[in-house]
Amino acid sequence: MIEVKNLVKKYGDHLAVDNISFTVESGRIYGLLGPNGAGKSTTMNIITGCLSATSGSVSVCGHDIFEEPKEAKKHIGYLPEIPPVYGDMTPYEYLTFVAEAKKVPSVRVAHDVREVMETTFLTDVSDRLIKNLSKGYKQRVGIAQAMLGDPDIIILDEPTVGLDPKQILEIRELIRKLGETKTVIISSHILAEISAVCDCVMIISHGKLVACDSIAHLEESANSENKLMLTVKGDDEKTESALIGIKEIESVAKAGKNRFEVTFADGADAREEIFFAMADIRQPIISMEYEQVTLEDIFLRLTEESSTVPSEQTDADDDGDSADDEGSSDNNNNSDSDYTPLFGGSTEAGKDEEEAK
Fold first, then answer.
1. Which of 21, 60, 79, 304 could be joined to 142 by an S-S link, Cβ 3.0–4.6 Å?
2. Widest distance between CA atoms in the chain
């Protein structure tokens, strides 16, 4: 559905997106994961046509986002990190405005607005001013506007940032529901967020794509080393000597008092041999469990090299996706050639409307 090839975005000497390529398939929930300043929002802004690229290409359902922006955007519903809502409108008024802006047929506007409001549980607050709604409800309004027009792809940038735990759970459930009928991409730097709702993960570090795979496969690959954490009560030297004598064991490393990290040979499982070896020397096993590598471990391992990035780039990035913030500034200040409104209108019309507001 989305094909990104050799995508590059530069701001002067700063490389915000560094030759990224990936493919998004239909019917899945993708997580775009990375530390603050990694380039997640910049990548999303380019994919949605809100920001130009220095080089590379983005194809959405067969349409080039730069060459055929209107056709490509018909397939995308986008929620930026800050929901693009008008506080002096009610959710019903605002969503009706968005539906008309997206050129939903007039005979379907009222029906579609009611449908997305029911899906996002906004019906009870449909007549309240958006500025008086909680942040969680504002996020729901933002997601509802992304759903209008029945796009094939829903893209959500940091959809749960700033929400309380109850609101986070509600938004996660809504994202899962969207994933039943849509392809969903969410951006986050929160590992639990990605683990909770996503099928696949793309990890970005300093503008580079360092992983793109299913969460299950990433964890399976990381856990293929057959490492066992073993705690044995007794003399550590006797324990280590007994373990080294087991042929299926490749290496033994101390991990603290009475604790060992045991690595098996490929395909081997020596837990039974360890049990009998410890019984022979009369040293009881307190615990024996495989070391499970989590998504957090994988993320830290893949982004570890970011600590070696020159200080100038780190300074530019250390303020909550500041590279992306710079992209927003670039987006707002550049000419029309560098910015295409999401709904296909002109930038001057957007400015006139904002002044009228």
1. 79
2. 85
